[in-house]
């Protein structure tokens, strides 16, 4: 192969606006193609076409704790990697002990934990579940999968959680449950919600995907209602890549939860020696996470307080240094009620409008900072209109969602990077 073609092959791996156009032309130039290739190389390395590289501060970096690989290796050597091995048991026990939870079962995701919750509540086609529209799709998907209809209600503009005062007016004879989302690791008024549920004989599910290690009036989120669900996705405070857990606070649901999680079999009772053989007894699926995933999670649980304190420190640093912008009424900072002990899952600010938010995110990106907006309200989506309805007035759900900006937040975020974020935000508001 001639050197021209060798060079051509190499250049196909490089993508710049200039070269991409040249490469299209080269194929039509025959023997003269090599000349244009050489010209392209020259242009690539001239200052005129060389882009200035800016270090990007990522919105999220998945957590890694020293010793994780050792645990994974230990799991591999145990020859038990499919699930419910020693690390799965250690993770479950840690949560049960730490949170004073009745029963915790690890799952393949928080979505699957929510699906298990929907099955455990015996929801049927036509049943209704009340929830906020400002949430991730999994909150709704889990209940739709069993045929239920979701009824969205407005949010509290301060907490971005379900408005407790809007729940009761959405209740109908078809209502069977309330799904509560602990947005940003901050809960709504759970006392009020549980009182409403008791009054109307409804079950309550906590979507505590963002609430691990956070508390409501001293009680850990996920342990207050009938069922709680955690996420250990890579964007969460504690991660196993993909994974979750279901907290069973109603003891009467434990046995069936184990069966559903094990493909509908009573295999767990067999392993405990309670029966001499196991069989298919109920609906179920494979909700067991890999032992390797649990091995990655466990070292984080052992350092849970250290991780939590580090995130809180970063959160407080943002708040202290951006407070003046709120005092000047240029932005709104994240609100934390007195009853809440949050977990610094995220730090967000609110701009004045969608247009201002768009401009701010663009400005931050231009300065090497990845900031993002969050959920698009579910009730406005095609599936939301098909599988649910919005009860009452959308006073805050849409308008507040259009203002929210999430800043970089992760374990290991440095003050140097935070200072860069803070400086860029202040510069934006000085110019606008």
Task: Summarize the helices and strands and which ones pair or pack.
Layout: H1 3-11, H2 17-26, H3 33-44, H4 68-77, H5 86-99, E1 103-107, H6 110-120, E2 128-132, H7 137-144, E3 149-153, E4 175-181, H8 190-199, E5 203-207, E6 215-216, E7 219-220, E8 227-231, E9 244-248, H9 254-261, H10 267-271, H11 291-302, H12 304-327, E10 332-333, E11 340-341, E12 348-350, H13 354-366, H14 382-387, E13 388-390, H15 397-401, E14 404-406, H16 415-431
Parallel strand pairs: 2-3, 2-4, 3-13, 4-5, 5-8
Antiparallel strand pairs: 1-9, 6-7, 6-11, 8-9, 10-12, 12-14
Helix pairs in contact: 1-3, 2-3, 4-11, 5-11, 6-7, 6-9, 12-16
